[in-house]
């Protein structure tokens, strides 16, 4: 039989931070993908009665979060961490646009913006050598 690939756990501090940001996002994506109703309730969102499209969008977004963060965890390459950090960073930028233009300046949005910025900063900081 061939060699079995072992799971890689980072040894550098900066890469560990990026790894934990990806692990957090993978867990979040898994919850959103498998239990979108529960995730929506936590976020204060709801779908229209009899219209499953909203749940499909939630599952799709959760699947994206899970997929890109699992790629970062399993491949552990700087360019994958760059893609992961950029995706989360652009999501944070979209939230910032909503806060500024959609009258979305509520405590929940601001809190999630801070979380998204932190999750994006960890892998990007590792890739660009700041961590």
* Average of per-residue pLDDT values: 91
Helix content estimate: over 70%
Biggest pleated-sheet summary: none
Q: What ranges have pLDDT less than 50 throughout 5 or more consecutive residues?
A: none
Summary of the model, kept short:
The chain is mainly α and 131 residues long. It contains five helices and no strands. The mean pLDDT is 91.
What does the model show?
The structure is a single chain. Helix 1 packs across helix 5 (107-127), helix 2 (36-43) packs across helix 3 (53-75) and helix 4 (78-101) runs antiparallel to helix 5 (107-127). The protein has one domain. The N and C termini lie far apart (39 Å). The chain contains 5 helices and no strands. The chain is an all-alpha fold and 131 residues long. 75% of the residues lie in helices and 0% in strands.
């Amino acid at each position: 039989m061939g060699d079995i690939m072992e799971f890689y756990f980072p040894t550098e501090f900066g890469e560990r931070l990026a790894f934990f940001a990806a692990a957090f996002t993978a867990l979040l994506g898994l919850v959103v993908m498998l239990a979108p109703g529960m995730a929506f309730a936590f976020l204060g969102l709801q779908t229209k009665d009899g219209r499953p499209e909203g749940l499909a969008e939630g599952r799709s977004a959760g699947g994206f979060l899970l997929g890109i963060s699992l790629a970062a965890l399993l491949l552990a390459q700087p360019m994958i961490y760059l893609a992961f950090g950029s995706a989360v960073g652009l999501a944070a930028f979209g939230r910032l646009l909503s806060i500024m233009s959609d009258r979305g300046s509520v405590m929940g949005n601001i809190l999630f913006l801070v979380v998204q910025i932190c999750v994006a900063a960890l892998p990007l900081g590792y890739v660009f050598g700041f961590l």
